[in-house]
Amino acid sequence: MSLPCPAKILIAADIFGVTPELGQLARALGSSATLVSPHPFTRTFRCEAEGYAFFMEHGGVAAYAKHLGEVMAVRQCCFELALGFSAGASALWLCLADATLEPWLPSRTELYYGSRIRESAHMQPRRRALLTFAEKEASFDAVELAGRLRQAGHAARVLPGSAHGFMNPRSAGYDERLAAQEILRLQALLEVGPFAARNQR
């Protein structure tokens, strides 16, 4: 039996790891959060490509998913919401399909531009997730992938005009307008920030 979590949100970081900007996002969502990095220690990368190369050398998405699963299992509680960005989204997708994590899977999951999901699109998650893809991806057709996932019964969308990394100020694809739009949507989902008054009615 799962227990309530002291931290309501689990955030699986992208290749840049746990950054001050990710902390700002957690604070904007008005809840305590557990931030998880794809790297075994805090480190700064000169660019996204350098971070990605390090990530792949140390196990890639499968290793990240294993680490996230351990974070969930050790706490033996269910997060209200899990957010995954890029590598974090792809790793969370694997976790959602893992039967051994059933008792600790988050109630809701939002996956942003998880490009490696294309390699495991056949998997059946045990919790419903919203998959948000960037329209501009260098290595695959996001519109085609989202369509295929929807045909399989998953909630998937592509944000027009968006590039990979649009939620992260450190990414070349960052889009301040789209990021603000999505943060507002997540705040509404959690009933925090400008939507906190709903909880007082």
What form results from the Cα inertia axes?
globular
Q: What does the main sheet amount to?
A: 6 strands, parallel
Fourth-level CATH superfamily = Alpha/Beta hydrolase fold, catalytic domain
In the CATH scheme, the class would be: Alpha Beta
Give Rg in angstroms.
Answer: 16 Å
Name the helicity range.
25-40%
* Mean pLDDT over the residues: 89
The CATH architecture is 3-Layer(aba) Sandwich
Number of domains: 1
Helix/strand/pairing category: alpha/beta
Strand order of the largest sheet: 3-2-5-6-7-8
Question: What would the keywords be for this entry?
Answer:
alpha/beta, globular, 8 strands
Detailed description of the structure:
The protein starts with a strand and ends in an 11-residue tail after the last helix. The strands form 2 sheets. It has a 6-stranded parallel β-sheet with strand order 3-2-5-6-7-8, sandwiched between helices. Strands 1-4 form a two-stranded parallel ribbon. The protein is built from 6 helices and 8 strands, in the order ββαβααββαββαβα. Helix 3 packs across helix 4 (87-96). The longest helix has 16 residues, at 60-75. The model has no long low-confidence stretch (mean pLDDT 89). Helices cover 35% and strands 19% of the residues. It has a single domain (3-196), classed as Rossmann fold. The protein has 201 residues and is an alpha/beta fold.
